[in-house]
From TrEMBL, chain A:
GO terms for molecular function: ABC-type phosphonate transporter activity. This is Phosphonate uptake transporter. The keyword Magnesium does not apply. It is found in: Cell membrane. Keywords: Cell membrane, Membrane, Transmembrane, Transmembrane helix, Transport. Belongs to the binding-protein-dependent transport system permease family. Residues 74-257 form the ABC transmembrane type-1 domain. It is a multi-pass membrane protein. The chain crosses the membrane at residues 21-45, 80-100, 126-149, 184-203, 215-236, 242-260. It comes from the Bacteria. The keyword Membrane applies. One of its GO terms (cellular component) is plasma membrane. Its main location: membrane.
TrEMBL record, chain B:
InterPro entries: MetI-like, MetI-like_sf, PhnE/PtxC. GO terms for cellular component: plasma membrane. Residues 74-256 form the ABC transmembrane type-1 domain. It is a multi-pass membrane protein. Belongs to the binding-protein-dependent transport system permease family. One of its GO terms (molecular function) is ABC-type phosphonate transporter activity. It holds the Pfam family BPD_transp_1. Keywords: Cell membrane, Membrane, Transmembrane, Transmembrane helix, Transport. The keyword Transmembrane applies. The chain crosses the membrane at residues 21-40, 80-104, 125-152, 172-189, 210-231, 237-259. This is Phosphonate uptake transporter. It is found in: Cell membrane. It comes from Roseibium aggregatum (strain ATCC 25650 / DSM 13394 / JCM 20685 / NBRC 16684 / NCIMB 2208 / IAM 12614 / B1) (Stappia aggregata).
UniProtKB/TrEMBL annotation, chain C:
It holds the Pfam family ABC_tran. It comes from the Bacteria. Residues 2-246 form the ABC transporter domain. One of its GO terms (cellular component) is membrane. Keywords: ATP-binding, Cell membrane, Hydrolase, Membrane, Nucleotide-binding, Translocase, Transport. Transmembrane segments: none annotated. The keyword Membrane applies. It comes from Roseibium aggregatum. The gene is phnC_2. GO terms for molecular function: ABC-type phosphonate transporter activity; ATP binding; ATP hydrolysis activity. Belongs to the ABC transporter superfamily. The lineage of its organism: Bacteria, Pseudomonadati, Pseudomonadota, Alphaproteobacteria, Hyphomicrobiales. The keyword Transport applies. This is Phosphate-import ATP-binding protein PhnC. It is an enzyme of class 3 (hydrolase).
Length: 265, 264, 257
């Protein structure tokens, strides 16, 4: 008896195993469908490693002749991200206020707030940028507005959640003191969401720094404009310089934001 | 009472007044100079308002007339996302092992980390534009882009997970004289598989979002359709596309959230 | 003087929590309200300043009918009622001084509140009161750095800053250890005498209630069933207040009806 059980040992029961095979088969089927019907020219695929190698060999060594222009574009990118984040933070406050269940004035404002958050969050920065380039023309203004529109949803959602999670007891106490609604917000809610406010603003600034490096590819300002120009003129050595500059910017952004987080929180 | 103190001020966040006012001044100077030096064309901005009116006027009602194009674009995005997720998740396994300090020798560890850092530093749109130049327009560039994007995220988290595994089973296997690969399969994989599947599903969701974007620079999918619509001033079609993208993102977010909740 | 007549509070469609309750607190006395959990003590207190809306009945404080006040008038009315809470209800991330001054929020301008430029007389009064209870040296500390007893002192001072006509204390010592609890009760009683202030205290600890109050009100299942001097609170009376569970009460009422 003992012997038989030992021999029959298996990792899964038959039903479990069947289910697992089912998932595997389903996944394989979906992948096969995607692979079979996707519009790819396979000759290009087999050629890809050579092409990549070729492109890479044309990128080295990086060409620093226009480094001053690149650096000033980099600075413009930083400014663009910073200003847009600052403005988005200010605009996100009222949105968070009406999107939080415990502070929103009524059901209508709650849904308005949620609508703003969802539409802002579901549309990518680049798509916002396409729209605002069409409106304001190419340049940093379109970039700033695009980043703002995307950031409001992100900041508003996280801030709104922070407002919903506050301790309601101080609110009750200040109401009992006869404080007006605005003063209750000022003394009982604002201090409680302050840490989240700073953490979220710093986090979004870091993300916006990355996002603003690509805005230029759709004409919305920053370092991407130079990248696009270098690519269009097949100046691959300058492309690699720009790419290195972007890595440096992103790493520097991460260092600064983690420093600020430690300092303030 | 003994004391008759009648003044109180809140202690400022930065105690040193020089530092404090210095910081305020620096912020003020920064804001002024930035606005002064950013190349902002105010006339063009004012014109933008009337242009916005025209664009929104042209966008309503959204037009689903060319729904065939729309569906094709969307299906292509979906395929790009699926293939990139499979490729990215599979490739990220060896890279994660290379980037795990407790498994890989130091030189390989640095290589693995470097791959992850580079993959994370570049926005997918930049990666896409490079791949478009290297392998041509179309979904293949999109797939490669999102594979890189997936590696940056999945390999990073997976490497962290590998570094946190319980070293006991690994030691036991080594003590039993098992070769390196068997050790991985029996002592390490069981500890990370669940996490990897969860990451994969999460990544499918983010790849679907990203695939809508990389198309704008020519890497296939619905983003390309959207960029074309914008380029031809078909704002009603562009709005329809955007609505489909938003809808798809909301659905995929809900589905992936539900699945991850079930397997977690 | 506080006068409550036929107060009823009902949540939803269920049985009322307060059933036709009458209570009068004439002058400067410390009244302790005792009763088991769920007897309606906390609801009674919160009905007085309308943190909980009464279903029916009247509440008069020195001639003002609180039940009929509009939103704005209610805010002005609430300044006249100080309240102390079981879990202190301080704003942790603000300093002790800001917490104390938040008792004045009903009086000061929005700009003063925002910029923390409080009126001179408010600051003087705050220091006097804080010195009286021994927390003046904490003025610039954050509230969450203080111990429980110190935090409740801040809570009491915040209520007194309102210059209230009556003080409500909802289980003010339930979160404190016995020794600190005794100190806070002493403080409440002494301050009530000094400021000639009537105080209503919800309390679980019957011994403390007997020691520190001038009058004891016993509640059971939404009604007042005992109202007398502390000495009159005999074993039998206590048994009547605390024995049994609401469930049994409900059955008894059903049988009576």
């Amino acid at each position: 008896m003992e012997q038989v059980q030992l021999q029959d040992w298996a990792r899964y029961t038959p039903a479990q195993r069947f289910q697992r095979y089912g998932y595997f088969a389903l996944t394989a089927l979906v992948v096969a469908w995607a692979l079979g019907s996707v519009n790819i020219i396979w000759a290009w695929v087999w050629d890809a490693p050579t092409q990549m190698g070729d492109l890479f060999s044309r990128m080295v060594p990086p060409d620093p002749t226009h480094l001053d222009q690149i650096l000033s574009a980099l600075w413009e990118t930083v400014n663009l991200a910073t200003i847009a984040t600052a403005m988005a933070v200010v605009l996100a406050l009222p949105v968070a206020y009406i999107a939080a269940q415990n502070t929103t004035p009524n059901a209508l404002t709650l849904w308005l707030g949620r609508f703003i958050l969802v539409s802002s969050r579901s549309v990518n920065t680049i798509i916002w940028a396409l729209l605002f380039v069409a409106i304001f023309g190419p340049g940093v203004v379109a970039g700033i507005v695009a980043i703002m529109f995307r950031s409001i949803g992100f900041l508003g959602k996280l801030l709104g959640e922070a407002i919903e999670e506050i301790d309601p007891k101080p609110v009750e106490a200040l109401k009992a003191c006869g404080a007006s609604h605005f003063k209750v917000v000022l003394y009982a809610i604002v201090p409680q969401v302050m840490p989240t406010f700073f953490a979220v603003a710093i986090l979004r600034w870091d993300i916006n720094l990355r996002e603003s490096t690509v805005l230029g590819l759709v004409g919305a300002g920053g370092i991407g404009v130079i990248l696009q120009g270098a690519i269009d003129t097949f100046n691959w050595q300058e492309v690699s310089t720009v790419l290195l500059a972007i890595i440096a910017l992103v790493v520097a952004g991460e260092v600064v934001s983690s420093y600020l987080r430690r300092k303030i929180l | 009472m003994s004391t008759a103190r009648d003044t109180w001020r809140k202690q400022p966040f930065i105690a040193n007044p020089v530092l404090r006012y210095g910081l305020y001044a620096a912020i003020a100077v920064y804001i002024v100079t930035t606005f002064a030096t950013l190349p902002i064309d105010w006339d063009r901005m004012v014109q933008g308002l009337s242009r916005a009116g025209r664009i929104f006027g042209g966008a309503f009602p959204p037009s689903f007339q060319r729904s065939e194009l729309l569906i094709d674009g969307f299906m292509e995005s979906l395929k790009i996302a699926i293939l990139a997720t499979v490729g990215g998740v599979l490739l990220s396994i060896p890279i994660a092992f290379m980037a795990a300090r407790n498994i890989a020798p130091l030189s390989i560890y640095y290589f693995g980390r470097a791959v992850i850092i580079i993959a994370r530093s570049f926005h997918p749109v930049i990666v896409a534009i490079i791949f478009v130049k290297a392998v041509g327009f179309g979904p293949f560039a999109g797939i490669l882009t999102l594979i890189v994007y997936s590696i940056g995220f999945v390999a990073k988290l997976l490497a962290e997970k590998i570094e946190e595994i319980d070293p006991g089973p690994v030691e036991a296997m080594r003590a039993a004289g098992a070769p390196f690969l068997s050790t991985l399969v029996y002592a390490v994989f069981p500890q990370i598989m669940q996490r990897q599947i969860g990451l994969g599903i999460y990544q499918l969701d983010s790849n679907l979002r990203a695939s809508a974007v990389v198309g704008i620079v020519g890497a296939g999918g619905i983003g390309a359709t959207l960029a074309n619509a914008f380029g031809r001033y078909d704002y009603d079609f562009a709005l329809a596309i955007t609505m489909v993208i938003v809808g798809a993102i909301l659905i995929s977010e809900a589905v992936s959230g539900a699945i991850r909740k079930r397997i977690a | 003087m506080l006068k409550i007549t036929s107060l009823v509070k009902r949540y939803g469609a269920g049985d009322p929590v307060l059933k036709d309750l009458d209570l009068e607190v004439p002058g400067e006395e410390v009244v302790s309200v005792i009763g088991s959990s769920g007897a309606g003590k906390s609801t009674l207190l919160r009905c007085i300043n309308r943190l909980v809306e009464p279903t029916s009945g009247k509440i008069f404080l020195n001639g003002t009918d609180f039940t009929s006040l509009g939103k704005r008038e209610l805010r002005v009315g609430r300044r006249r009622i100080g309240m102390v809470f079981q879990s202190f209800n301080l704003v942790d991330r603000l300093t002790v001084m800001e917490n104390v001054q938040s008792g004045r929020l009903g009086y000061i301008s929005t700009w003063a509140a925002l910029s923390r430029r409080y009126p001179k007389e408010d600051i003087r009064r705050a220091y006097e009161l804080m010195e009286r209870v021994g927390i003046a040296h904490y003025a610039n500390k954050r509230a969450d750095e203080l111990s429980g007893g110190e935090r409740q002192r801040v809570g009491v001072i915040r209520a007194l800053m309102q210059q209230p006509e009556i003080l409500l204390a909802d289980e003010p010592t339930a979160s404190l250890d016995p020794k600190t609890s005794e100190q806070i009760m002493t403080l409440l009683r002494d301050l009530a005498r000094e400021l000639k202030l009537p105080v209503i205290i919800n309390i679980h600890n019957v011994n403390e209630a007997k020691e520190f109050s001038d009058r004891i009100v016993g509640m059971r299942y939404g009604r007042i069933i005992f109202d007398d001097l502390p000495d009159a609170l005999t074993k039998d009376a206590m048994h009547e207040i605390y024995a049994g569970v609401p469930h049994e009460d409900r059955q008894m009422e059903g049988a009576a009806a």
